[in-house]
Amino acid sequence: MKKDLLSINDLSKNDVEKIFEMTDKLRNKHTSHLKGKNIALIFQKPSTRTKISFEVAINQLGGNAISLNWNELQLGRGETVEDTARVLERYVDSIVARVFSHDDLVKMAKISKVPVINALSDLEHPCQALADLYTIKQKKRKLTGSKIVFLGDGANNTFHSLILACEKFDMDIVVSCPKNYKPEIRANYKIIENPEEAVKSADILYTDTWVSMGQESEKENRIRDLQNYQLNSKLVKSAKKDVIVMHPLPAHRNSEITSDVMDGKHSVVLDQAENRLHTEKAILCLLIK
Questions:
Q1: Which is it for strands 64-69 and 172-176: parallel, antiparallel or unpaired?
Q2: What are the Cα distances from residue 13, in Å, to 27, 124, 144, 166, 172?
Q3: How does pLDDT run across 97-111, given as a tens digit for each residue?
Q4: Phi, psi of 207 (to 5 degrees)
Q5: Superfamily assignment of 126-273 in CATH?
Q6: Which of 11, 29, 33, 210 is the most exposed place for a label (fewest CB within 10 A)?
Q7: Which residues contact 251 (CB under 8 A, 6 or more apart)?
Q8: Mean pLDDT for the stretch of residues 146-154
Q9: Where do the structural domains in the chain lie, given as residue ranges?
């Protein structure tokens, strides 16, 4: 594996399989893999699952998590990302950062001698994608050949990472979205604008919020543009009988997904959330030597 995890493209198919093997080994176990190690967690954006899952993962591995808000650091007063990274590498064994600009992560990783992990940026969310792919493997027993359908905003950062991850395993990837909401990455996926047509024979249905952090000013337009892509019971019935429904959370119930679907028998949403903890333990163990 490379030193840093900024993008799913930093991982080979073999790397992903190693992460999953390590996830299985570490699942529900407390170890001393990170004994004596300090990990800085930097959050420029609010977080529930990412913050708690990484803190608990580090704790279960015997390490010490140092959680920092962007504005608690001199970053909030204008210190450069590079200078912050140069200092932190003298103190800690890894940097986990949740930021607005993906370029900030690239700058950190270029300067830092310790691993930098992307805990979400405007471009990608690789840790979420790995937990999602692990959940699919857990539920469907296979990845290759499975059909996954993304509904809604195809330019979503979580979608970007998951599309790249699914591509490594030759999955049938369909994105159902309006023309001006297509993914901003190059990958092997199909666009089917009509959601009812897109979900036919789907093994996995996946959606995410229509209004991400920083897009609040576009809220009305985005809801209007995406309202026909709601993940509801009608679409679930059009997919395979054993289809699974996924959402990375937080969800806006009865907006991008209806409550009956999110809480229904096809939903694996809470398993996704739990698997963030397990896969992040594996990521930390493999990157921090």
A1: unpaired
A2: 21, 18, 12, 10, 16
A3: 999 999 999 999 999
A4: -140, 170
A5: Aspartate/ornithine carbamoyltransferase (3.40.50.1370)
A6: 29
A7: 209, 257, 262, 269
A8: 97
A9: 8-125+276-287, 126-273
Question: What is the DSSP secondary structure assignment for residue 271, as one 8-state letter?
Answer: H
Mean per-residue pLDDT of the chain: 96
As a whole number of angstroms, the distance between CA 118 and CA 61 comes to 19
Asked if 8-125+276-287 and 126-273 have one fold, the answer is yes
The pLDDT, as a whole number, for residue 77 is: 83
Q: How far from the centroid of its chain's Cα atoms is residue 43's Cα?
A: 15
The residue type of 56 is V
| Tokens matching residue 132 | 């999602």
- Rounded to an integer, what distance in angstroms lies between the CA atom of residue 1 and that of residue 20? 14
The one-letter amino acid at 172? D
Instruction: Provide the CATH topology of domain 8-125+276-287.
Output: Rossmann fold (3.40.50)
Q: Which residue has the tokens 């995406």?
A: 226
Q: Which of 64-78, 209-223, 263-277 has the lowest mean pLDDT?
A: 209-223
Question: Position 159: which residue type?
Answer: F
- Number of residues in the chain: 289
Q: According to DSSP H, which parts of 27-95 are helical? A: 49-60, 81-91
Task: Output the six-digit token pair for 261.
Answer: 């679907």
DSSP 61: T
Question: Is the whole model's pTM more than 0.90, yes or no?
Answer: yes
> What pLDDT band is residue 126 in, cutting at 50, 70 and 90?
very high
